[in-house]
Protein 1
Amino acid sequence: MMQHNAPSLAEEESIFSRYIELSGNPMMPVTPGSCIGRALRLSHFFLTSEVGDEKEQDQLHNYSIDTATDKIYATTLGVLHIHNNKIVVRPILYPANDGMTVYGDIYHKDFSGNSLLLSHYAAALWHLNVNAPIDTARFNAAIRKAESQNTPVRMVPICKGKPAIHEEPPVIIPLLPQRKRHTVQKSSATVDFKDQGFFAEVPANTPVAVKIPSAEPSNGFDVYGNALPVMEQPTPVGENKTTTLNIGKNLYGILQQNGHTIYYSSCKGLMSIRDDTLSITDVLRIDGDVNIKTGNIIVEQGSVHITGSITPGFTVKAPQHVIVHASVDQGTISCGGDVFISGAIIMNKLNTILSKGSVYANHMHNAEVVAAHSIVTSGSIVNSKLTAGNAIRTCTEKGTVLGSTLVAGSEINIAGAGGENGSPPILIIRNNEGTQNTLRRITSEAEMVLSQSISKLDDWIKKSQEKKLTGSMRQHADTLLKKAKRIRKNISNRVTPCIAHPLHRVIIRGTVAEGTQVTMHGQTLTIKHPLPKLSMELENHHRAVRSQTTGTGTASTVALSHYASTGRGEMFPAQAETEG
């Protein structure tokens, strides 16, 4: 009957059969008091007399041997195992070192082929002095799995203690990511690993974070019944208890029924987490460089403040301002406001800085900068192409321009042009008459339409005088005619632009190298020999070039009419007039 209930024996049976005349399947657990079999070779077993031996004192063999019959009886729940050439019964319950969990290997049959019950495991736990309750649901699920698969389920946590709940601050969890990933590109498209998504705009009254209150402090216990008291968290003198994440500006909270607090944005902006504080802000601060760690910085709201540099190949885009504490090294900037760069702009002519405001930098080398207003630098401009809607200035005497092209709408004011270490620059003042021509064309068209309407209305009034019209109709027609004439006169006075040009100037405060080109409204002056200074102005069609010689202290003015064309688009002075 026993052989009928016993599962098929595994390969290891031949190993144990050398030493034991087995009474069951050695791959299944033995229960306390059950007979394992008869010992064939006692040298491979721990005898009762050896228990007190100092060498074997720490050895847990978990069986006893009847020396009269050499029968072996298990004293714990476990499976046969060979350790140091000795046969032992290895327990199948494993208390964790911290005493908070007991793991068990769950079998559905025992050594004799009988069903293993919850009571067998409970007795083994009691033998280990464990008094924590068994997780019956987990245990029963493991028993069913072991029976269906005919294999034991290893390391099932069947007993757990209760950890003490200490006094902790509440936890604030963000509900939105700081960045939104771009849509996944097609497999055939090139993947840009620098593009880590953009910092999205958070609309007003959007939930951005939730505060989860901490549970009430309570004592706990381990699986052996030992108490685990609550540990008090002392607060340093003069300091308040703080949460792991603080709530910053532009947020308001609403308490929920479950005790949680949901925080909403009070205005439109960017969600920023900095110095453990969550805020809604118009300025995104990037600590350190823009590099492979941060990826490209793209925001849809506010400004960007970078405490480091923009490293090669990375892009920063913002609808307002961009502030960089260090340099821009072969990076790209595009913004709707001003660009402030404390260091240098160093590029390889593959990157561009585009600003709808002004651009300020310490030095520019191989830079391509386009600004709607002004470009200002305190250092030199080398091999660069700068385009400004208003002015380009170097604000110190170190601001020499070498081998660059500067295009401005009204003024170029630099410390020096060209020199021994670089080729002379090209300085261009753009002709902005396109807007004036457009306004003049619109005015002319409006006057023409009104004149035609006035003529038709006048003819209709003259023809209608031959007919009998009511006084009110004739009076109404006269009123319309007067109003049309008044509108035409108003447009003529207010819309027609003044043909006079605004003040345009090119000022070079220091040395002007030979070959420097200055272009104003399509006419170019090429410097034929070095000059100590140069000032060229245009206002209401009156142009003059002023040059000053530092050695003699005299100043001379050459009027525009005194320049003659060479046929190559150049101008040169035909005669000089001395001022004062």
Protein 2
Amino acid sequence: MKRQQERAEYRSIIADSWNRCIGYGLHHDYEPEPANLDDRARETLEKDYEALLSTTETEVLPYYNNIMSNSRCLILLADSHAQVLKGWGDKRITESHLRPWFSAGASWHERYAGTNAIGTSIATRSPVQVQRNEHFLKLNRSIISSAAPIFDTDRTLVGVLSAFSDAYLPQAHTLGMVRLLSQSVENRLIVRQLGGNHFILTLNTTADNIDSPWSGLIAFDPNGRIVASNQRADQLLGEPLSGRNLNSLFIENRNLILNHSHNTPIQLTTTKRVRLSGLLKRPVSLDTVTTKPARAIPRARPTEPGMAGVSMDDIEHGDPLVRRCADQARKVLERGVPILICGETGVGKEVMVKALHGTSQRCAQPLVSVNCAAIPPELVESELFGYEAGAFTGARAQGSLGLIRKADKGILFLDEIGEMPLAAQSRLLRVLQEREVTPVGSTERIPVDLLLVSATNRPLADRIDNGEFRADLYYRINGLSLELPALRDRMDRRELIRRIYLEHRDSGQSDTLNNEVMAALENHPWPGNIRQLVNIVRVAVAIADGDDVQLWHLPEDFLADYESQTRPERKPVFDASPYRESPQANDNSRNDTMDQTLVVYRQCMGNVSRAARELAVSRNTLYKRLRDLGVR
């Protein structure tokens, strides 16, 4: 369904461009003449765009020389008016009559050149790939063009980076590479313009891929006010960031972020409950600036996969199903059997993986976590399998090992594997079968030794039926399938709440929650599971500010849900009174009681606490009935 929607949107982009071309008065056989700048005009053009040109050369040339030098491909940089500024690469990719269009001064605006990647990318302000026959002018139908816009720190479109190639050459990575390069240029523009006087925070889904050019970038002043961000940062935080303050974006206090070590990752949680890894870079000009120290608060044990401090004892506190999952996973993983962990979002799949890593024989080796849903589809293969040496400047100047090779000798955790694009699924299957990786842009096969754990919150069988997931890959990753229960169904929920509170409470706060708060937490349906619980507890502890947590310290939306459940006039889902426990219940009515227990349980969608309230029985009694029925 998603792929069909993407194809429909793509067709709409091409159709809209053709309509604009018709509106400009163009016809398919039109052959415009490219501009021919003299040396003086060319020098003026390069001087006007000196910063953009120098930045692009810093980012593009190392990539082109090491990755695409063996391909017949041409990279062009154009300004915001679609005028070519400079080109790098092989101009022999097509017929000689097109070569003047690759020189400085040539205009690829749709008004003159019809539908093409540069002009259409400017019109839509988005990445575009235009196939051979999608070009409006027949003149351009021997090439395939891909382009991505470049925005400055003010989000003004300042240029377009594009790649042209022969229409008969493979195009699997071209658009993804162009997007990656344009993002690299944007990042460099932000650092170049603002890095001297502002803090720069790099963000990504895990610490393992924080050095990726596709990381988010935020520039902010000592007061925490954001002055610029790249598009990836806006995507990760779920909103435009310019003008916002760090305190309104992250649960962590601003001073905790400002005072964090500049060379070690920091774990952050957004106010929208998204967990990210960050790396802070301080400006040289602000080295002497001091910030108000944050009040000392005991730090919670990190739960990010790949972080230290999680053991098997941390994931289960009396729930037999979780214990069974943990025991089985530990036994089969040591024998090299791949594990697939299923469960709703937030049930603790990543914490289970961290605990497995900590108790395995590979605990001293890396645990590399990959959120397949968080990497742009065009770049999944490149991030997983790596690039040839010399692909990028800075941290990536010597190329990228790729996340799979980073996990060599250790454990690779593929979270949300159901979201992996089909092309990457095919390559991953080959890696798992042959235990060898071939980096993008290379023909060398590199052996890898790793254990694989995957996770999903969506039934993969449905995605197989829809043609979105390969059946052969499913059977390769599904050596042992485990399903972690939702928080609302866990028998150790009370103890789990207590442990999480102890991890996050301030040193002066009571080591127990009062009955009213505990009841509210224990009886909540928790659609966001353990992840939601952790955030609710952290918010309550922060608002209490050293005092014991009270009911009114819980977030307002949480309290609204709680009050709606406990309001006296609330009517039950349906009349369960005939099936409630009674001292007069006899053996003949037991079967009816058990049958109706199952009906109520299903009507309440598996919510044990809610079903127990409807039946007016204790949760322990309901658990016993469900076990007798073979449900739990």
Protein 3
Amino acid sequence: MAVHNPAECGIMIDAATTVDRDDAVWIEPRGDGFDVWIHIARAADHVRTGGPADTEARRRVHTRYRADHTRHMLPAPVVEAASLTPGRPNDTFAVHLHIDAAGRVLDAELGPGRLTRSWIMTHAEAAAASGDPGHPLHGTLALALRFSQTMLAARRNAGALAFYDLLSGFATNEEGQIVRLDSAERNSGYIIVQEFMIAANAQIAAWAVREDLPILFRNHRLAAVAGDPAGLRDEIDAVASSGDGAAFEMLRSRMKMVSRAATYGPTVHGHHGLQLPVYTHATSPLRRYPDLVTQRILLAAALGRPGPYTAEELAETAAHVNASLEAERRAKAEFFKQRAQAETERQMEAADFATLPYKQFARVLQFAVERGDAPAGLAADTARRLDSRELQLREFASVYLYGGDEFAPLRERMNRRLAGEPQQAQSVLNVYLQDRLGGPVSSETNVHWTVEPEPAFEGPLFSAQVALTFGDTRVESPKRLQRNKKDARNQAALALAAALAGLPDLSSDAPAKPRADVQRKLLVDAAVNPAEAVQIYAARGILEGLTWDFAVEGPSHERVFTCRGEGLLRDTGEQVRAEGTGPTKQAAKTAASVELRVLIEAGLALGETGSRSPA
């Protein structure tokens, strides 16, 4: 191998049936790190911008793989001419990375490349060769696997939702969703390909940003309710180590609910699933239209040619691709929904629910609840699964919130179960909101918590109240008092869940005894800044709906600010307001706060506020 230029060597690792080979990888040791090359087929040389093949590729957006056939994005002659092929020189777009032992990219070179010595391997063959010292490519593939494991560890340490369980066949895709791998991909060859391509796409995107070059960036955001990616990854690891297939399926369903689809765009918004500040798709120009578009832009920039797209054309292309992919997702979901519904109706007629695997049982139960007509035996089997702790959150919430008369006794039991495990109530509220919104829940716009200390009572005591908003509707819980914030939130959520389900409210308040010295305790120390004191009274709930408004008058060198602060004394309903002026906004606010504080504390001194019993 020493007589060959490593920059012109590459291994194409693909499925056995692949004909459109658009990437190859190579790696050499460099000190305690790696020299890495990713070669990408120069599809742009074979597809004229705006020509018939390009127009059809734009319409198709990507190659579609089916069990019985493949519908290629590009015509067969173009695929044959542009594919990387052993035994002949291949022009490529090359990404050359110098990476240290910790997985940090020290240097990246991008531009036209050439592949003169190459090999074809399946995922399984690459995996076998990496562990077989007798294989001619063992050294390269063993190093490639080490590199992939290093890059995977670096991404996981950054909080990425990166996971492969080759034994069970579960893995995460770039959007953080859990997917099942084909049997041919359940090996280390698959990991090699994935990590090389992620590294290449990330560095291409970073290079485009450094060059201020608009391409089709790949942007991704998790829903607000998804949680911290690192925490989700730890949960995936825990479920994987348990070997609990049902738990994996439940987590898989949950990740589908909270992970939004990634989109293409000419501006950067980051990629949360991969925990990368910038990302793109550029390594599959024979199979994905955005990769072909981006390759044209990269080649033009590298060769000093004018850009092939205006900003408007690039934005329009991104919008077209996003809309096409979303329409395809909806059509696919509708197809599987109809097929599942037909199978569900058949299983309902069979009425042998105890023998159904959980996934099929869940479909039958959901269908029956939505239809409002449960067949005989379904409620009893649901109760059995509840008692055996098999019933999962989605199905529990559906019966609890919407179950009809057939489920009435079971819903009463569920209500008691939830009262005993109030930490589950917030999850039930989340399901309720998702049903109303038809998608992910935002913790900023849909769920509103008010949690604050209650100094009017002896001992540490906190109140919590939750409100849900969707459309023009707002529903809220009663206020609940507990010894800590977590318990107060759980009891407030429990009360609202019961109200939404039309079931008895089994939530409770902790015993509370009013302080004898309540007025003195409620007063903020006189040394506290007036503006801060007013904010403290608002945080304690003594002053509700506090607002500050500012106005300014006069020329720039003699500006006069006016601040108006106002709010509502909680118990009396009295509106209090004050104004102050000053040369700065802060001075005006301080002046208004002095007067507003007097009004609040006058109410306290007269015993007009702070003496309510718990709600």
